[in-house]
Amino acid sequence: MPLKQKPTGKLISFEGSEGAGKSTQIARLAARLQKANREVLTTREPGGTEIGEQIRNIIVHNSKGDEMCAETELLLFTAARAQLVREVIVPALTRGAIVLTDRYLDSSTVYQGIGRNLASDPVAQINRFAVGNVMPDLTIVLDVPEEVSIARLKQRASDLPDRMERENIDFYKKVREGYLVLAKGMPERFVVVDGTKTPEIIEKKIWSTIEERLK
Ligand code: TYD
Fold first, then answer.
1. Measured between alpha carbons, how far is 212 from 88 in angstroms, rounded to an integer?
2. Closest by CA position to 112, among listed 150, 159, 164, 65
3. Taken in order 120, 123, 129, 134, is the CA torsion positive or negative?
4. Measured from the CA of 77, which atom of ligand 1 is nearest?
5. pLDDT score, position 189
6. Who has the most CB within 10 Å: 22, 66, 67, 108?
7. If you measure from the C-alpha of residue 5 to the centroid of ligand 1, how many angstroms do you get, rounded to a whole number?
8. Helix (H) or strand (E) holding 199
């Protein structure tokens, strides 16, 4: 089992569709927490470990990636996560660190479960198997309409959009709605933040949420 007793650290996951502004907000929150003298560790999914980065390459950049079936995709994402939990997250939480992760198990629930129409029970079981009892203390969803996701993706400097980013507008709509449904069902763990506001307003909202929920 990954964790035998409740650690002193906290795990905060950031979720939302592409272009929602997760990485900007993670960097801002990390800086604030460090100023408050907390040990902070930031990580990203899929990836964050050497094995995870290799898995990430297979999923995101594989030129023949379009042939990958949804089941394989789910198992690869959760395999990368299983490694990240045991190699990075658990040791950090045990030290008392605050771990900020760019995506966690809710990404699989939403992208593979809802986005790719995999049945919710096996997705939940596989997710649970991968993370064990290492659940987020708080999950922040940066919510943006699908049109905004697509427009922001187009603005990104990168040349060709990667495999996941080539999805169409209906897919992003499902992803957005999927997160909102999850958040509604688990209000004790989730907070939805309007990702169309300025980075400063979003940062303040996230900080006040952290102060309120994770005292
Ligand atoms: P990434 O380049 O990290 O995108 P972003 O910056 O938007 O997070 O690529 C991750 C992609 O993988 C993104 O499209 C979401 C998708 N994904 C899943 O489909 N399932 C998962 O479990 C995870 C972690 C990510």
1. 26
2. 164
3. negative
4. 22
5. 97
6. 108
7. 30
8. helix 199-213
Q: Which residues of the chain have pLDDT under 50?
A: none
Q: What is the DSSP code string of 37-62?
A: T--EEEEESS-SSHHHHHHHIIIII-
Rounded to the nearest angstrom, the distance between the alpha carbon of 159 and the centre of ligand 1 is 18
* Alpha helices for 5-119 (secondary structure H): 22-35, 50-56, 70-84, 90-95, 105-107
Kindly give the interhelix angle for 199-213 and 22-35, rounded to the nearest 10 degrees: 50
The CA-atom distances, in angstroms, between 132 and each of 117, 127, 192 are 24, 8, 25
Tell me if 205 sits within 8 A of 193, measured CB to CB. yes
Please report the pLDDT score of residue 46 as a whole number. Answer: 84
